[in-house]
Design a protein that fits this description.
Number of helices: 7
Oligomer: single chain
Structural class: mainly alpha
Distance between the termini: 71 Å
Order of helices and strands: HHHHHHH
Number of domains: 2
Number of strands: 0
Mean pLDDT: 82
Largest sheet: none
Length: 171
């Protein structure tokens, strides 16, 4: 496209979307609804409309991704995206995004993508077959989910250990 790499355009589009979502009311609402739907409703967030907008935006991005893949492969295949599924989950979870929603960042996902790409590159340079990269992605995904679960358990236990302030503590 006039000498501009498509990957640069995608990076600029993602950066613009990140700025809009981090600095706008809609982005704050989406994070609030993803973290705690009831809590967001109590603070006045229109939960129903926010969910509809979030799903509509996600659907538009899915459609855009389909157009990009179709243009690169010059054809259509319903099973073409299946190979990207594990990698996309691994990138997101390794990047620190909770699968339940409500926490995570674009920067974390970028670092997750870099970690997956580096692990693929290391395995290929060491002479392993390409199927080993799928196994490594799965193991990284399991490790990341385990680390998130352990962190949540530690936070819950730490919150239970804190005792309420007593009247005698104030004097």
């Amino acid at each position: 496209m006039a000498g501009v790499p498509v990957s640069l355009l995608i990076i600029l589009l993602v950066a613009a979307a990140w700025v809009v979502l981090r600095r706008s009311r809609l982005g704050t609402w989406i994070m609030a609804v993803g973290g705690d739907r009831d809590g967001a409703a109590y603070t006045g967030v229109p939960v129903g409309r926010t969910r509809i907008v979030a799903f509509a935006m996600a659907g538009a991005l899915y459609g855009l991704a389909g157009v990009v893949v179709t243009s690169q492969t010059a054809g259509g295949d319903a099973q073409l995206g299946a190979s990207y599924l594990l990698a996309s989950f691994a990138v997101v979870v390794v990047g620190g995004v909770r699968l339940g929603g409500g926490s995570g960042s674009v920067i974390g996902v970028i670092f997750g993508a870099m970690a997956i790409a580096i692990s693929d590159g290391v395995l290929l340079s060491l002479g392993f077959g390409t199927y080993w990269s799928t196994i490594a992605r799965g193991l990284l995904l399991l490790l990341a989910i385990g680390a998130q679960a352990a962190l949540i358990v530690c936070l819950v236990r730490a919150s239970r250990r804190t005792r309420p302030i007593q009247i005698g503590d104030l004097s």
